Amino acid sequence: MADKLKIKLVRSAVTQVKKDQTATARALGLRRINDEVVQPDNPGIRGMIFKIKHLVEVEEIEEN
Q: Which residue numbers delimit the Large ribosomal subunit protein uL30-like ferredoxin-like fold domain (predicted)?
């Protein structure tokens, strides 16, 4: 597993998605389209990403 994940919101989390998916995007720190956040790579974050995988792009970041 990578050390960190860069998560970018590429589709709107407001229109045509369930409220819990919008809340998940907000909990990750994603507010608007093209917002990027860096989160630690752990099972909890991976589960949140899985829930909104149709709205985000994810890149693994290795730290040395």
A: 5-56
Provide the domain limits for residue 25. 4-61
C-alpha triplet 40, 19, 42: angle, nearest 5°: 15
pLDDT tens, position by position, 18-42:
999 999 999 999 999 999 999 999 9
Q: How many CB atoms lie within 10 A of CB 47?
A: 10
Instruction: Map tokens 């507010």 to a residue.
Output: 31
State the pTM of this model. Answer: 0.90
CATH of the domain at 34: 3.30.1390.20
Residue carrying structure tokens 């909990």: 27
Token representation of residue 43: 């099972």
The Cα 18–Cα 2 span in angstroms is: 29
